[in-house]
Predict the structure.
Amino acid sequence: MYAIVEIAGQQFKVEKDQKLFVHRLNEDRGAKVEFDKVLLVDADGKVNVGTPTVDGAKVVAEVVSHVKGEKVIVFKKRRRKGYRVRNGHRQCFTEIVIKDVVA
């Protein structure tokens, strides 16, 4: 059984006991989080597509930790102008574990 759910503006295909990294959530470690924007549910071959969401379906997850992603270097240059700018960025993520998919 899997579901396609919208979490923090992004769509993810999730199954039970799956770990995934989503954009930073404002929840504490160990907190239970429920996502009710379920767009599709597949229960053993029976597909239920929402319009736009599936009524009564939700995904229950637990927050494992808050981490930062790999550093991304942003380098800008204009040729022959002496213009060079180097910036770095690390995105904040939340690691969650899917506990249950309720259809």
The chain has a mean pLDDT of 96. The radius of gyration is 19 Å. The beta strands are 2-7, 10-15, 19-23, 32-35, 38-43, 46-49, 58-68, 72-78, 83-89, 92-102.
